[in-house]
Amino acid sequence: MFELLPLILIGVLFVINRGAAKRIDRLEAELGEVRERLLRVSGATAAPSAIPMETEEPADVAPPQTVAETVIAEELALDGAPYQSAPASLPEENTELLATAARSKATPAAPAESLENLLGARWAVWAGGLALALGGVFLVRYSIESGLLGPGVRLTLAALFGLLLIAAGELIRRKALPKAEALYSNAMVPGILTAAGAVSLFGAIYAAHGIYEFIGPTLAFLLLGLTAFGVLGLSLLHGQALAGLGLVGSMLTPLLISTTAPSLWTLFIYLTVAQVATALASRIKGWLIVPAIAQVLLGLWALVALIDAAEITPVALSLIAMIASWMLIWPGAKGEDPATPETPLSLDALGRRMASGPLALDITLSLAVLLPALVMLDRGPTVSLPLFAFAALVAALAAAGSARHGAFWPTALAAMGALIGAVVKSGLIAQAQVLLLGFGWDETAVVSLGGPVMLIFLGLAAVFAFIGLAQNRRRFAEDPLFATVWAVIVAVLPVMLTTISFVFYGTYARDWAHGLFALGLGAVLLAACEYLARQGALPGFRRGIDILILGSFAAFALMLHCLTDGVVTTILLALLGFAYLMATRKRAWSGLPWMMVAALVGVLVRIFWDPTLVGPDALSRTPVFNQLLPGYGVPALLALLSAYEMRNWPGLRVRNALQGLASLLGLLAVAILIRHAMNGGVLDASAPTLGEQSIYTLLVVGLSGILMTLDVKSPSPVFRYGSMVAGGIAILQTLSLHLGVLNPYFSGESTGNWPLINVLLIGYLLPGLAYAGLAFYARDKRPLPYVILLALSGALLGFAWVTLSVRRFWQGEFISYWKGFEQAETYSYSVAWLAIGVGLLALGSRFDARSLRIASAVIVMLTVAKVFLVDMANLEGVLRALSFIGLGFVLIGIGLFYQRILSGKSSRSPDVDDEEAPTGI
């Protein structure tokens, strides 16, 4: 019974074919009648000049006068709509506009697909195709279980059934249902039948080899491959779904065929042909999904093949062939929308570029190439061959991405893959793990591969530099956004690859190979900037030229590190940045002065890494005149000259940056020389003494005053805010160090042998006077709260100096807290504090400074509290009486003094206020 099923199905197909043919004949007859009717109408009005001008047309339908009108009349006649001729007075272009409008009006909108059509014409066909495929499978299964037919007959019938389904699909496509196919294009009646037949053929061939062993692996491989390619060819007629089936069948064929002597060359030649054939078919039909799947499958095959890693050459060549097919055939969308020269260079524009184009094709290609390439780094029979294959794949992908106009992802991912491969191959990850665990630098973690690896790294860097500069030359005008992306790659990737090669495979003392390569790279990038500027790249490609300038500076800086060391490198780095800055006299490129900023930042990094610049053992112990003087002084001097040179530069940010760096480096130079001198020529991590810290505080206060002066002469945000930041840092140093950690009362440090000229003078009185002078200088230049803070800091340091000096008078050189207090010492504090309060009150009255008067009031109240709380409890006899008597006289005198001040103010003009006094603080 079931063996007659194929014959029954064939009969049903013929019946369907016959009914469809009758419907087609009827439609052709109706179209012929409509065509004859239109020809008669056009023939009757073919000679409009024979009709007299005064004769009025009685018909409702005006005859067409032009070819366009004739076309409109034919289209409207199909819809039964009357045709109105254009007025004779209209010119020809207006007639064409009317023709276009009428055509758009006459074209009816496509009706929405009903539920009946969806279920009856589409889903029924899909379910029917699945039923046919399952029916063939069940028929073979039943014949096996019943033993009705032998294996050979069953396989033959299955193959014939598949061929008949393919033939039926082609027959229906050609003759049976052309209109239904156009109306229900997604129903894919011919494609469903062809797919079901292809499944039957795949199953029959595989069963003949894998189950019954009727045919050998070679014949089975050829038959499966031919079937897959045949289905792929038929997909040009039946659609992308059938192409996917043929692709999957071709890619799975090697898995279905087992052999005792597998050959990677044969396998990947076959897979490459399948992928290229899929690319060609997709290019013809404009498909995007199938070619992306083909690239993914080939990449997966490459990863599977690399597990054994007997050979990597066929895998690499197959991936290169896939890159070539993407670049030359490029299946998918043909139109591109690259950025125009007017496109702004912004993150938004870059995001639109990243999301444009056939993303599935670009990303799948990149990942299918890069992932196997990264796996190749640890595979292969030799040491250098995997790295060479990796470099070839990455370079080929980068070249293809640059050749394809507007392709962003192959270019970007190739650069990222090159950097990841260099990091992995050099053992940087292993070194990072060792450093994080605290074991230091492990020399055994670096794989010593010799010259070939270094040459491959440098060669890959040269390839990216060449490709990138070629792209900049070709596309800086028409596509500045993409050219800027390549400028970033050229400026960053070659320098990083060279740096990794130098760090892991170079000679630290003096490496001529890496140094000369970096020198040549920097010269090429700088020459490219000059060439592009002369070609008119400015101002549209200004950012790209700035990035290339940065790349050249980075290359030259790497050259300095390869060929020099120690303080020489630091000085030459600053000189290199200064040379770029001085080049602004010849070329007004916006990126040139920023190289000086980069150089000074590099100097700061070197100082942070090793403050001695030459190593602790090699640092001279001679004060001032040692390696620190040129190492810190020359960059500071060049920074100062750079800030002066850029005083008229239009870029405000670079001027501010140079001014700030010049101030910072100058302060560092003086501070490091002081520390070196006060620590016996040794720079260590020990905490500074009070005297040393006092010098630092004086430096910061002086820096604040210098910046304030510069701001008055040449207003700048760096000078304005920098002066207040410096003053704030000095105030924090006073509160945390002078009065806290480094205070001899707490630290026990010796104050010196001399009574007055000692550490207390340097640590408290001199900084206090500096704060007072800075507050006086800033009273009309900075905000009032900032000036008050400075004045209060000075008063607080002065108060601390007097108090600690009194304790030193009674306790001697060491004034630590554990020594306790004597009665005379306790009384002396009250006298000294009252004297300070009176003195501040006098100064506040003299300069009309309210902040000093407030400080005086605070100290007097503190003295009152001390007398009533401390002196009353601790003093005895005449000292207690003298304490209260003296306090009383002073308070009465202060009251009389304030009454005099207030009476003097009341006699002044009411429109003159104490707050408006020009010298008030």
Descriptive tags:
disordered N terminus; membrane; 921 residues; transmembrane helix; single chain; mainly alpha
What does this structure look like?
With 921 residues, the chain is mainly alpha-helical. It has 33 helices and no strands. It has helices spanning 5-44, 67-79, 92-106, 115-146, 151-176, 178-183, 189-211, 217-238, 240-256, 264-285, 289-308, 313-328, 347-354, 359-376, 384-403, 409-426, 428-436, 451-475, 480-505, 512-534, 542-563, 567-582, 592-609, 628-645, 652-678, 690-713, 717-741, 744-747, 759-778, 784-811, 823-846, 850-874, 878-906. The relative contact order is 0.03.
Topology of this structure?
Layout (H helix, E strand, L loop, with lengths): L4 H40 L22 H13 L12 H15 L8 H32 L4 H26 L1 H6 L5 H23 L5 H22 L1 H17 L7 H22 L3 H20 L4 H16 L18 H8 L4 H18 L7 H20 L5 H18 L1 H9 L14 H25 L4 H26 L6 H23 L7 H22 L3 H16 L9 H18 L18 H18 L6 H27 L11 H24 L3 H25 L2 H4 L11 H20 L5 H28 L11 H24 L3 H25 L3 H29 L15
Helix pairs in contact: 1-5, 2-3, 4-5, 4-7, 5-7, 7-8, 7-9, 8-9, 8-10, 9-10, 9-11, 10-11, 10-12, 11-12, 11-14, 12-14, 12-15, 14-15, 14-16, 15-16, 15-18, 16-19, 18-19, 18-20, 19-20, 19-21, 20-21, 21-22, 22-23, 22-24, 23-25, 24-25, 25-26, 25-27, 26-27, 26-29, 27-30, 29-30, 30-31, 31-32, ...
Strand proportion, as a percent range, falls in: under 5%
**C-alpha geometry:** elongated
Major β-sheet annotation: none
Oligomer state equals single chain
